[in-house]
């Protein structure tokens, strides 16, 4: 694994698949901004995280000794095959992902394509033409009821 790695482009949280413990970030193609590819960053076997929903740029690196000790103390479960990845978006704006691995790739996939790093998973697609489900009724009562 070649870390640290830096991505000098906007990225956003694309999906968090809880059942498969995967977090996917995506930087969409934007030819007006000179970005001719779509970038995806996938964390697999995620056990814990502290992330933003978007980044203007991002560096992923391994933690220093004291940083890893602090992260292990915060999550005392056995880490087994997990390792810590520090997400840097700028000075003093670190986040982290405790995961089994991280993968990234660029593709000329069209905008709106589900995912090229996890193609077997059918990600939900936003459709502005699809009506939203009805809002559930709110029940106001004291708890516990007596």
List the SSEs and their pairings:
Blueprint: E1 5-7, E2 11-17, E3 22-27, E4 38-44, E5 48-50, E6 54-55, E7 58-61, H1 65-74, E8 83-88, E9 94-99, E10 101-107
Antiparallel strand pairs: 1-7, 2-3, 2-6, 3-4, 4-10, 5-9, 7-8, 8-9
Outline the structure in words.
- The chain has about 150 residues and is mainly beta.
- It is about 5% helix and about 35% strand.
- The strands form 2 sheets. Strands 1-7-8-9-5 form a 5-stranded antiparallel β-sheet, with no helix packed on it. The chain has a 5-stranded antiparallel β-sheet with strand order 6-2-3-4-10, with no helix packed on it.
- A hairpin with a 5-residue loop joins strand 8 and strand 9.
Give the helix tally.
1
β content, as a range?
25-35%
Uncertain regions spanning at least 5 consecutive residues: none
How many β-strand stretches?
Answer: 10
Secondary structure: helix percent: under 10%
Structural class: mainly beta
| End-to-end Cα distance | 59 Å
Arithmetic mean of pLDDT = 85
Rg over CA atoms: 19 Å
Question: How is the biggest beta sheet arranged?
Answer: 5 strands, antiparallel
Q: Secondary-structure element order, as H and E?
A: EEEEEEEHEEE
Shape: globular
For the largest sheet, list the strands in their spatial order. Answer: 1-7-8-9-5
């Amino acid at each position: 694994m070649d870390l640290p790695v830096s991505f000098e482009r906007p990225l956003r949280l694309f999906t968090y698949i809880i059942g498969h413990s995967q977090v996917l970030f995506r930087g969409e193609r934007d030819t007006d901004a000179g970005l001719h590819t779509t970038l995806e960053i996938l964390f697999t076997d995620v056990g814990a995280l502290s992330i933003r929903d978007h980044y203007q740029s991002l560096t992923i690196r391994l933690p220093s000794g004291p940083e890893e000790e602090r992260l292990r103390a915060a999550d005392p479960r056995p880490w087994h095959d997990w390792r810590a990845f520090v997400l840097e978006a700028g000075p003093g704006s670190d986040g982290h992902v405790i995961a089994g691995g991280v993968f990234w790739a660029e593709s000329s996939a069209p905008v709106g394509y589900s995912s090229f790093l996890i193609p077997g998973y059918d990600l939900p697609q936003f459709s502005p033409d699809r009506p939203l489900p009805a809002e559930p009724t709110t029940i106001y009562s004291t708890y516990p009821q007596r």
